Amino acid sequence: MPLSSRRRRLVGLIVAATCVATSAARAQDGEKVAPIFQSAAPLAVTFTANIHQLRDDKKHGDKAPWRDAMITYKGADSTLVRVPVRAKVHGIWRLAHCEFPPIRLNFAGKDTKNTVFDHVDKPKLTNYCRDTDAYEQYVLQEFQLYRVYQLLTPTSHRVRLLRVTYADEGSGKTEAVRYGFLIEDPDQMATRLGGKLTKLKGAGIGDIEESPQAVVYLFEYLIGNTDFSFNQLHNGEIVALLDGRNLPVAYDFDFAGAVNARYATPDPQVRIRRVRDRKFRGYCQLNPEFVKAIPLFQQKKDSIYALYTDEVGRLMDPVVVHETLDYFNEFYDAIGDPGKADRVIFRDCLGPR
Question: Is 203 found in the same domain as 116?
Answer without folding.
Answer: no
